[in-house]
Design brief:
Blueprint lengths: L6 H7 L3 H16 L2 H25 L3 H16 L4 H9 L1 H7 L6 H18 L14 H16 L6 H13 L7 H8 L9 H17 L4 H17 L1 H17 L6 H10 L3 H19 L2 H11 L6 H8 L4 H10 L6 H9 L4 H12 L8 H13 L1 H4 L4 H11 L4 H15 L7 H13 L13
């Protein structure tokens, strides 16, 4: 059961200042027991809000809104000579809002039609009997107030097909976020903030189908998944219901060639796994277990994030080449990949190979390394001459030091250990000082005197 909403709070939800003033007036009438006046003021707010929405749509280039506003201005300028047309315009407000601009669903239009009918009873000398005028109840007045605000006055002027098209275009933009929380911030000022259920359903289903079935650039697919994640955050109950009712059917129709997209979808949208059902879950597990070539690395990167598929993914990661492992890390760096990356790095067989492994396996994981992980990496450096003596390694380690700042305090001893090992070798250490030593000294990890000098 929906609880009572504070009427003053309702007034604050109105987007248009003029409509808000009428709602404030309606609330004041309600509190004073003037229920007829309350209903009349509420209807006035609806009409003025509709006109305000037309002006907003006009600014976006909507030609129909411009035509309707021009029609209204002609009627208004005509004064008494246009009285009949003015009445007809007012009578048609709900029809136009629903049929021409998708601002109202059929049921919402019916609710506001009741408000319009009651407004006519209140504004005209309607009689319940020959002696008693029409007198609405407090409950009826409050219902009309709430319906007017929640159905129309608090919403953006774009819903329906127009809103769907606008949001899809926003997601296509290369400037749209690829992170769900950032996408929420983007959506909060638009039609999704107070979207109707039908719009939410159409967006979740439409974007999902497009993501899974069409051949899209990788970054556009990530933006789509961020958009779906944002919709779930903003309208969780409705979005999860849409997923549970539609996702099994949509994913069941996905071709084998697009199964890697299904795995990614379930990774990026955690709510999807339970919604797809046992049959699709089984299909995903078999796909990850048998994936090859390009599908192999992509599926493993996303399968690692699915608790029910993680064991299968880890079993396959053990046999990956360093090139394949680097591809998996590039798609989605994960803590589970760190031991394998360190093993490949520590076994480097050449100077250039050690530099390449450090750049492709170690640096991309820097932001998620633990102090123990960093210790194991730094231990591998002096233990393998192909790493320790490689000309590019000191500079790469300097970059690693910069990118592990958040664990710097807990890992200071590990860097000290590396510098002590440097002091045991006989070659010129000036390059190490320029690329790594100065960083350690400036950060207070070692003192000036602790860095080895000369040969």
């Amino acid at each position: 059961m929906t609880g009572l909403v504070d009427l003053d709070e309702l007034a604050l939800r109105c987007r248009d200042d003029q409509a808000r003033q009428y709602i404030h007036e309606a609330v004041a009438c309600y509190k004073a027991g003037a229920f007829r006046s309350c209903i009349v003021a509420t209807w006035n707010a609806v009409v003025f809000d509709f006109l305000h929405k037309l002006r907003e749509l006009d600014l976006t280039g909507d030609s129909r809104a411009r035509e309707k506003l021009a029609e209204f201005e002609v009627i208004r300028a005509g004064g008494k000579s246009r009285l009949k047309e003015a009445l007809d315009f007012e009578r048609s407000v709900l029809d136009v809002a629903a049929d021409n601009f998708d601002l109202l669903t059929p049921l919402e239009k019916l609710d506001l039609q009741r408000l319009q009918d009651d407004r006519n009873r209140c504004a005209h000398p309607s009689m319940q009997s020959s002696e008693a005028p029409y007198q609405p109840t407090a409950e009826l007045s409050r219902t009309h107030l709430r319906n007017a605000v929640e159905i129309l006055l608090q919403r953006e002027p774009v819903q329906g097909k127009a809103a769907f098209g606008q949001i899809c275009q926003e997601v296509k933009s290369k400037y749209f976020p690829e992170d769900a929380s950032a996408a929420v911030t983007h959506f909060q000022g638009g039609p999704l903030a107070r979207a109707r259920k039908e719009l939410i359903r159409n967006l979740v289903v439409g974007i999902t189908k497009n993501n899974l079935e069409d051949d899209l650039p990788e970054n556009e697919r990530r933006r789509q998944l961020a958009a779906i994640g944002a919709i779930i955050i903003m309208h969780r109950a409705i979005a999860e219901e849409v997923l549970s009712q539609n996702l099994m059917r949509i994913m069941g129709a996905v071709s084998d060639a697009n199964m890697v997209k299904v795995v990614e979808y379930c990774h990026r949208i955690p709510e999807a796994w339970d919604a797809v059902g046992a049959a699709i879950q089984g299909k995903i597990k078999k796909f990850v277990e048998s994936a090859e070539d390009d599908d192999l690395t992509s599926s493993l990167a996303h399968a690692l994030q699915l608790p029910e598929v993680k064991a299968i993914a880890l079993n396959k990661i053990e046999s990956l080449s360093y090139i394949e492992l680097a591809t998996v890390i590039g798609i989605h760096p994960a803590p589970e990949l760190i031991p394998y990356a360190i093993t490949h790095f520590s076994q480097a067989g050449s100077y250039r190979g050690s530099e390449h492994l450090a750049r492709t396996l170690i640096l991309p994981l820097a932001s998620i390394l633990s102090p123990d992980d960093l210790r194991n990496i730094l231990r591998a450096v002096p233990e393998n001459g192909q790493i320790f003596d490689a000309g590019g390694i000191p500079k790469i380690l300097g970059q690693l030091f910069d990118e592990t700042e958040k664990i710097r305090t807990k890992s200071a001893g590990h860097w000290n250990m590396l510098i002590m090992k440097l002091g045991e070798v006989s070659y010129d250490k000036e390059w190490w000082r320029e690329t790594l030593g100065e960083k350690l000294i400036q950060a207070g990890v070692i003192s000036e005197d602790e860095f080895p000098k000369g040969r």
